[in-house]
Amino acid sequence: MAISGYTGISFPFRVGNNGGVVLSTTSRYSAEHIVEGVTQILNTKYTERPMEAEIFSDIDASLFEPDNEITKGILADQIVADLRRLENRISLNSDDIELFTVETERGENCLYANIIFRVTDYETYYQASNVLIGEVS
Predict the structure, then answer these.
(1) How much is the pTM?
(2) H-helix or E-strand spanning residue 75
(3) Judging by beta carbons within 10 Å of its beta carbon (0-12, 13-18, 19+), is residue 60 exposed, middle or buried?
């Protein structure tokens, strides 16, 4: 049981066995809710949330660029800028982001990220592993 935790709709959204939306609860010393927030921020496109237009990430604009180290550096800088703008509970820099491409069973290439960040409230480092950034050309 979580001690003075946070409860909210789990991401990715899904329907539970009882027919309702699955909720996730974490303790205040767990970064699971922050990892979910990071994933939501990075996967929200511009104008996808019309009532919260300031919540979006620009990384999808660079996904169709060549899959090389220069593009990955630009994407890492964009990820840092988006998370600094929208997630004030963490701190990170572009050296804390590892981007890698994985070929799916259908032959598509998907870009993933491992993101190491520091939770500023309790000075602890966490890693968001295998965060799907998007499909690359």
Answers:
(1) 0.80
(2) helix 69-86
(3) middle
At 11, which amino acid appears? F
Instruction: Count CA atoms within 13 Å of residue 132 on its CB side.
Output: 11
Digit-coded pLDDT (tens) for 33-81: 888 889 999 999 998 888 989 999 989 888 888 889 999 999 999 999 9
Q: Give the Cα separation of 75 and 114 in Å (integer).
A: 13
Q: List the one residue out of 79, 48, 85, 44 whose CA is nearest residue 62.
A: 79
Whether residue 72 contacts residue 99, with contact meaning beta carbons closer than 8 Å, is answered with: yes
SS3 state of residue 135:
strand
- Pair of tokens at residue 110: 């998907």
Q: Write down the residue that tokens 């840092």 correspond to.
A: 80
Q: What is the rounded CA–CA span in Å between residue 96 and residue 80?
A: 9
Report the length, in residues, of the chain.
137
Tokens of 123: 């000075």
